[in-house]
Fold this protein.
Amino acid sequence: MSDYKLTYFDFAGSRGEEIRIAFRMAGVAFDDNRLSFEEFEKLKPELPFGSLPILEVKNRGVITQTNAILRLIGRQHGFHPEERFAAARHDEVMDTVEDFRHKIFATMRIEDPALKKAARQALAADYIPKWGAGVEGLIKTGPFLAGDTPNVADIKLYMAEKWIGSGDIDDIPKETFEPFIKLKAVAEAIRHHPAALK
Ligand SMILES: N[C@@H](CCC(=O)N[C@@H](CS)C(=O)NCC(=O)O)C(=O)O
């Protein structure tokens, strides 16, 4: 029994996988509680905000909100900057990945196929390139946000790049991030980190 129990869906993506990678990167054991969608629906009424991931911390309680969980792991194990301005910069990146996610998730709720396609094409033509350029401007020497060492914010950039690069989102071309060399380099560096390789 470890000090941490992460509950998330049973797939290697999105918010829960960011936390799994952070734990692996920190070399910290955790219970990886993976739920089916049916199990989630049963548990949902008991969840603090009705969603996953949640992290149960031994003798302390339950934490929700992916970025709060990532910062907790990052601060406890040296994967979030100690200096306040640098930490705010990393927080900025982490929050903008959540904004990015919400923009794409919003299109998944559009039922009309033509409207969905148009919404996705608009994101690919405007929002995502501007988002990529914004992130690109925050990465200095690379390969990571802080230079040579990875932090939890880098894991979030990796997950955003991986999602687009998978080509799994219809009407958002998998090449959309190709112009963003520094963003791609962060993603490559995390992709080849043993924590991401499992
Ligand atoms: N703000 C929350 C969002 C959590 C969230 O929306 N999680 C999704 C999965 S990635 C979920 O549980 N969706 C199912 C639902 O809300 O019913 C966070 O950052 O952790």
